[in-house]
Amino acid sequence: MSLSVALSHRLGALSLDVAFETPGGVTALFGRSGAGKSTVVNAIAGLLRPERGQVRLDGMVLLDTDQGIWLPPHRRRLGYVFQDARLFPHLSVRGNLTFGARFAPRAERVAAQGDFDRVVAMLGIAPLLARRTTDLSGGERQRVAIGRALLARPRLLLLDEPLAALDQARKDEILPWIERLRDEAGLPIVYVSHSLAEVARLGTTIVALDEGRVARIGPAATVLSDPASFPLMGRQEAGAILSAVVVEADAGDGLSRLGLSAGDVLVPRVAAAVGSAVRLRVRARDVILALEAPSGISTLNALPVTVASVGDAEGGAIVEVGLTLGSERLLARITARSARALGLAPGMPCIALLKAIAVGRRDMAPAASEIPRDG
């Protein structure tokens, strides 16, 4: 699946001028509130007519203002899940799901009906089918909304801040289901969020928006591990995504051992089988640098790295250091004084130290098989 978007539109104080193409998987539209994320996704869905623009999905023209083409929403075959679920209160969960199947193309309605059990099982909502939607938790409502959208057999699924209205417990409940949707349904997704944690966990491609413009675009691991992205991501939460394999699910003391391209790390126990691929989020603020492997310290993880870049001091106090870790990138955020004391410079080998507890369970997730890789 390829999605091509080029839009120009003024909405209140926002002057939108964006253009991007993505290859499929989960395209994460990321940015601060007011950056233009929902405006873009509404234009893709056909809920907003931009002043100028083109939207193409697998070569099918959904919008082209130059040619006077604007397909109405019901002809675009897109599934849309809003922040507030928007379920029908007069219908049961089953009624909401079967309502979605009515919008499948006529030639695919029998297939859509056959999808019912598969979608219900994938989202874990079988126990909810007879319940009223008003009796569901926030996380349950969102899962039902996703199921309703899937049963319409869309060509693309749009998720606009689906977790924004949920507390952390409900977010932890629904995130694994979205991961499962990403990995099992084979359906391309555009995921809108201003949460870096969600984007790092779910996204395969990131389109970072800033004041109505595309500031960065690329594979999630590349964009998030680039020091140039720090101003967009928020320096406190910025970091890198690493690909790992479970070497020991139970390495003792409540820890698991994960294999990286340049060594192993110990992290809090992961609920995954040996050999499973996982993605690991490491915040730059949690990485400590040393010239050689230290002894007599509590930190369990010491990884050989090479300095790739040393950023300019932030207000004279903080610098971002880009690191090469085997075939991947890592980031460290340290004081300028420390960088000077260590004599850090590109090409210099050193040791990256990482406390096992610095990587929480929310920072580890199943790897997306379709994550694009840099050559």
What is the compact description of this entry?
The protein is an alpha+beta fold. The protein has ten helices and 21 strands.
Kindly describe this structure.
The chain is of the alpha+beta class and 375 residues long. It is 23% helix and 36% strand. It contains 10 helices and 21 strands. A hairpin with a 2-residue loop joins β12 (239-252) and β13 (255-260). The chain starts with a strand and ends in a 9-residue tail after the last strand.
- End-to-end separation in angstroms reads 21 Å
Largest sheet: 6 strands, mixed
Helix content: 10-25%
Radius of gyration: 22 Å
* Overall pLDDT metric: 88
Widest sheet: strand ordering:
7-8-9-3-10-11
Count of beta strands: 21
Which stretches are poorly predicted, pLDDT < 50 over at least 5 residues? Answer: 370-375
Output the number of helix runs.
10
What secondary-structure arrangement, pairings included, does this model have?
Blueprint: E1 3-11, E2 14-22, E3 26-30, H1 37-45, E4 52-57, E5 60-64, E6 69-70, E7 78-81, H2 93-101, H3 109-114, H4 116-123, H5 138-150, E8 156-160, H6 168-184, E9 189-193, H7 196-202, E10 205-210, E11 213-219, H8 220-224, H9 230-233, E12 239-252, E13 255-260, E14 263-268, E15 277-283, E16 287-290, E17 301-310, E18 318-325, E19 328-335, H10 336-342, E20 349-354, E21 364-366
Parallel strand pairs: 3-9, 3-10, 7-8, 8-9
Antiparallel strand pairs: 1-2, 1-4, 4-5, 5-6, 10-11, 12-13, 12-15, 13-14, 15-21, 16-20, 17-18, 17-20, 18-19
Helix pairs in contact: 2-5, 5-6
